[in-house]
Amino acid sequence: MPAVIHNDVLMYKGSNLLRQRLLLSTLSGRTIKIEEIRSTHEDPGLKEYEVNLIRLLDKITNGSRVELSESGTSLYFQPGILIGGQITHNCCTQRGIGYYLEVLLALGPFCKEPLNVVLQGVTHHDLDVSVDKIKSTALPILLKFILVDDGLELKVVRRGAPPLGGGEVVFKCPVRRHLRPLQWTKWGLVKRIRGVVYALRVSPTMANRVVESAKGVMLNFLPDVYINTDQCRGPNAGKSPGFGISLLAETNDKTFYCAESKSSDAGTGQITLPEDLGRECALKLLDEIHRGGAVDSSFQWILALWMALGQKDVSECVVGPLSDYTIKFLQHLKDFFGVMFKLEVLRVEDDNEGSSDEEDTTPSAQRIKMTCIGIGYVNISKRTL
């Protein structure tokens, strides 16, 4: 549903895509008002993790104004100036750290001071991308826009599984006055698979069984497969038991695809077999590779954001089939910044980066060429040298 503008305030209804709206409001400086937030639910209003996100945005900005109705079903958000700096934030364990980290990643380059953030909570969650995936897949995308990685870092200090968490990560992001335009239409062929299996408060043999299962699938396709195990002990193992795997495929054009799987949360009564988990993650990675494109499907939206905010020049990128989340994000970009993307579906014969086997008859996933002209977004807080 498109936004309604009243007195220069963007009006929305419902709880869907709240994070997108808060993020774009903060970047654009446009005030938003969201009504009827779960008004028909038994537990109406904002959830604890959403209030926690608003607190985080308040910490990295100066002058933000938030008004919440008594029932929590109406939110008024007037963004302040992005200041960044050193912050420690305890994330709500209802969601993963990735839920908050993606927002910081999108805002980081435009802060007044370089971000140095300590986030505590759940490092791996079913609903959100893990910190491993952001580190291996999203940071290389940002590097395409800022070119120099001085000060760009994501360090996993401790891992934490749901429901209690106990994990901790440190995220550092440099600031930039503007982002460069991007031309990214080739992604190459997968040359190696890397991965990490973590085991928190469970037998180390669990991790080894996951490794063997995942390698058993991947070695059918590629000889260069190496999977590490991270046997966390003591305080580094968080507060809840669990194990999981993150697999990363790297192409010869420096494109990264990532897939991940984790065991069922402690206390749910469900049992996860390590062999099933390894195989499930390997098949997810093969599906991601089949989708193709220059970026992993989880980060199409953040690529679109940085393309739209780039200098006033043409940016283009070829991606796999657009995720629903990305489609909604493109609609929001139009609301907040007036940016519209040209989307072209590429025919299979146009896709010269597909399989290296000319006789391969496997149906190819749909490729989308995203093109836009950047708005020339300038970080006014960043001093020019």
Outline the structure in words.
Helices cover 28% and strands 28% of the residues. It is an alpha+beta fold and 385 residues long. Strand 15 and strand 16 form a beta hairpin. Helix 1 runs parallel beside helix 2 (48-60), helix 1 (18-28) packs parallel to helix 8 and helix 4 packs parallel to helix 7 (300-309).
Proportion in β-strands = 25-35%
Give the helix level as a range of percent: 25-40%
Mean of all residue-level pLDDT scores: 90
Q: How many whole angstroms does the radius of gyration measure?
A: 21 Å
Can you tag this structure with a few keywords?
385 residues; alpha+beta; five-stranded mixed sheet; four-stranded mixed sheet; 8 helices
List the helices and strands and how they pair.
Blueprint: E1 4-6, E2 9-13, H1 18-28, E3 32-35, H2 48-60, E4 61-62, E5 65-68, E6 75-78, E7 81-82, E8 84-90, H3 97-107, E9 113-121, H4 131-146, E10 153-158, E11 167-173, E12 183-184, E13 190-200, H5 204-218, E14 225-232, E15 242-251, E16 256-262, H6 274-291, H7 300-309, E17 314-319, H8 324-337, E18 342-346, E19 367-373
Parallel strand pairs: 2-3, 8-9, 12-17, 13-14
Antiparallel strand pairs: 1-2, 3-6, 4-7, 5-6, 9-11, 10-11, 13-15, 15-16, 17-19, 18-19
